[in-house]
User: What shape does this take?
Amino acid sequence: MIDSDIPFRGLLSIILRSHRVFVARELSSLKLTDAQVACLFRIHRQPGVTQDELSWFFQVDKGTIARITRRLEERGLIMRKQDPQNRRRYMLSLTAQGEELIPLIRKVEDRWTDLLFENLTDEERDTLMEMCRRLAEDAMKIRGVEDDRGR
Assistant: This one.
């Protein structure tokens, strides 16, 4: 049983750490890190995103993103294309092999969600998801982001 005095941030941390462990276990055959999975999804959602934009979105340093994207590129999951308007910048997109992983990863994410919400009614689940979307939007506003594409 979880202590009733754990603050909101602590509860979120428990859920997110448990999610990370679950996804790592379920996708162990792919040998992808949590950060690599997150980058694959972001690139899938926003083809042409740059490393700088990923760094800003995930709030991690540029070197970290460079290492993650280099490994994804070495594995043939993403490709970098030089930005014609700025030759020092590269736009990222998924390769066909990278796109093939998205449904598999999404299936694992859906399974996690189903397991996490199995003790909630459909109405409770819908209410919680709507409240979390609103909290996420408010958190992005506090951070100075208009939408989940970093704009």
Remarks:
- The beta strands are 49-50, 78-83, 86-94.
- The chain has a mean pLDDT of 92.
